[in-house]
Design brief:
Blueprint (H helix, E strand, L loop, with lengths): L9 H4 L3 H4 L6 H18 L3 H14 L4 H12 L7 H17 L4 H13 L3 H14 L6 H11 L3 H15 L3 H13 L3 H14 L4 H13 L3 H14 L4 H14 L2 H13 L5 H17 L4 H13 L4 H13 L3 H14 L4 H13 L3 H9 L3 H4 L2 H13 L3 H15 L11 H4 L4 H20 L3 H14 L4 H13 L4 H14 L4 H13 L3 H14 L7 H13 L3 H11 L7 H9 L6
Helix pairs in contact: 3-4, 4-5, 5-6, 6-7, 7-8, 8-9, 9-10, 10-11, 11-12, 11-13, 12-13, 13-14, 14-15, 15-16, 16-17, 16-18, 17-18, 17-19, 19-20, 20-21, 21-22, 21-24, 22-24, 24-25, 24-27, 25-27, 27-28, 27-29, 28-29, 29-30, 29-31, 30-31, 31-32, 32-33, 33-34, 34-35
Length: 593
């Protein structure tokens, strides 16, 4: 059972001394008392590992001390594997013995019941929590929890009983009405579910919540006209309620009324009762489909409204950057996130975004400048250093790229020299994330040496990249292309390229590599099929000279010279200094390099 499920609570470790300590009757009990006290002290000092070890020693000396056993079990849970069912059961037994011996311990009884519910032992959760509720009749906050346990057991009448007891004691609330209505829906008693919402409306006619709850129930039951009626009543009751506007907007969207959908989103963005993060989420949901349709004018208008309302918020600038990036405006994205950095210079994430955007925008020298001006505490992060190495390589500063990449290897994997051959034993101790980063670093080194025509070092770097992460699609693709271009092992290149496509089947660059390998192997017909799929999948404006030139070469070998020249002519404006390409166009023929 991992710590994500069970928190090693200090309060659970700090049991009352009068409960924890047995009467000291012999030497072992005195030692156990000493270790238990020391365990409590370690817990108070924020050292759960030491506390746990001390509880283990106390339990070994005095195994009948139920409170020590309980604390030991809590510590054990933070170290157990979910699949070790026997160990999990043993620790629950230790805790059960304590809560049954000391049923009046409210905190530990409630927490034990909660843990039981997490592992699906609802009968035990119900047994213990009901007992605690009986002993503490004034602690009414337990009643909805018990009702929830009964719901998971589908003991719906019992669940309603506990919700009703809570309502009698504490009064009604929107949350309670929702829970009770859900129970009635599970019982297929739709009349009672609607009556719950109706009763709340009659009691609080000026509150929008009741109308929203009833609208939600009616929508669930398929009564759309009635749903809209209650949503409009909610809006009339609280005209400035932003969440009501959002709910209305969602309803109009489902009805296909885009004008009213947009109007209610607009009014929600102007409301005062929604937080900025909520508004950004709402706006993000609104613009996402518009970006896919490449029609963002309506989204631009709404974003301008929000931007005018919060002119000095870095989160607005962050959204502006992400919005521009999604629209393909990479230069603008880099500029916007730069403004966010000026507003919030300590935000590490903004620095990473800026470097990414500058690289995508091919602003390589600015990317280098951004990396070099970043504070050391951020720039020393392995992921950020990797982006810096890409910036150096893209800017033609290959020595700096290699130097930074070698620094990263030394930092991540002490004792491994850049020229060493990696083995599985070298990388096995690394966590998956670090293996991935290490693989990317070696892939970058391979790319850099390939640019320098240093083929032996390029091969070693690519091999190391694939040792660290065998399914690194980029390393597989780049290594395969390098082999094809350098007249290397084409059979191996084809296998690596095929694996890269399997990992990313719709990525044009990888399909282009595979087509080019087939071309090099003389399989022109199959090469044409893959190269044409490249042109189908590449986004408009993202075509490269290489894609067109490769297609031209493949078409020529498929006895389509006119189409080949047409493709070469499309490639030339994208690579005007390509002398070989000019010769192909001039002589209308393919030239072997």
């Amino acid at each position: 059972m991992k710590t994500k499920h069970l928190t090693y609570l200090l309060a659970a470790l700090m049991l009352l001394t009068s409960v924890v300590m047995h009467a000291v009757s012999d030497v072992e009990q005195r030692k156990a008392r000493h270790f238990a006290l020391a365990a409590m002290q370690a817990a108070m000092e924020g050292d759960p590992a030491s506390s746990h070890e001390l509880y283990k020693r106390a339990h070994a000396l005095d195994p009948d001390n139920k409170s020590v056993a309980y604390s030991l079990a809590l510590g054990n849970f933070s170290m157990l594997d979910d699949t070790d069912s026997a160990a999990v059961a043993a620790n629950f037994n230790l805790m059960r013995e304590y809560v049954d011996a000391y049923p009046a311990d409210y905190n530990e009884g409630e927490y034990y019941a909660y843990l039981c519910s997490l592992v699906g032992d609802m009968p035990e959760a119900i047994r213990v929590s009901k007992r605690v509720a009986r002993l503490y009749p004034n602690r009414t906050e337990l009643l909805p929890t018990i009702a929830g346990y009964f719901m998971q057991q589908e003991q719906l009448d019992s669940a309603l009983s506990y919700y009703s007891r809570y309502e009698e004691s504490e009064g009604t609330s929107p949350e309670l009405i929702i829970r009770k209505s859900l129970v009635y829906l599970m019982k297929r008693d739709t009349v009672s579910a609607l009556d719950e919402a109706g009763a709340f409306i009659r009691k609080y006619p000026e509150a929008a919540n009741g109308y929203l709850i009833k609208a939600s129930l009616l929508e669930h039951l398929g009564y759309r006209d009635s749903t809209l009626l209650y949503l409009e009543r909610a809006a009339a009751t609280e005209p400035d309620n932003g969440m009501v506007k959002v709910t209305l907007a969602q309803h109009y969207q489902q009805m296909g009324d885009s004008a009213k959908y947009e109007q209610n989103i607009y009014e929600a963005l102007l409301s005062d009762d929604l937080e900025l993060d909520q508004k950004l989420d709402i706006l993000g949901d609104f613009v996402a489909p518009l970006i896919q349709k490449k029609d963002t004018k309506r989204g631009d208008k709404l974003f301008a409204t929000l931007r005018d309302r919060y002119p000095h918020e870095p989160k607005i600038q962050e959204f502006a950057a992400q919005y521009s990036y999604a629209k393909g405006l990479y230069d603008d994205a880099a500029e916007q996130i730069g403004i966010a950095i000026d507003m919030d210079p300590e935000n590490d994430r903004y620095r990473v975004m800026q470097l990414n955007y500058l690289l995508v925008a091919n602003q390589d020298s600015k990317a280098v400048a951004a990396f070099e001006s970043t504070p050391e505490n951020i720039a020393s992060d392995a992921s950020f250093m990797y982006l810096g190495a890409i910036a150096y390589a893209s800017d033609g500063r290959l020595d700096d790229a290699l130097k930074l990449a070698h620094r990263m290897i030394a930092k991540m994997h002490a004792g491994v020299e850049p020229g060493d051959t990696l083995t599985e034993a070298n990388v096995a101790p690394l966590p998956p994330k670090d293996r991935r980063i290490l693989s990317d670093i070696y892939s970058l080194i391979g790319d850099t040496y390939y640019k320098r025509k240093d083929m032996p070092r390029a091969s070693l770097a690519y091999d190391n990249a694939l040792t660290a992460q065998p399914d690194n699609a980029e390393a597989l693709n780049n290594y395969a292309y390098y082999l094809a271009e350098s007249n290397g092992d084409l059979d191996r290149a084809e296998k690596m390229s095929a694996k890269a496509i399997e990992l990313k089947p719709d990525f044009p660059t990888y399909l282009d590599t595979y087509a080019w390998i087939l071309f090099r192997k003389g399989d022109y017909k199959e090469a044409l099929k893959y190269q044409e799929s490249v042109m189908e999948k590449v986004e408009e404006g993202e075509e490269s000279a290489e894609y067109f030139e490769h297609l031209g070469d493949i078409l020529f070998m498929n006895a389509q010279p006119a189409r080949a020249v047409e493709m070469w002519e499309k490639a030339l404006p994208l690579d005007p200094d390509n002398a070989l390409l000019k010769r192909k166009i001039k002589h209308k023929t393919y030239f072997y390099e």
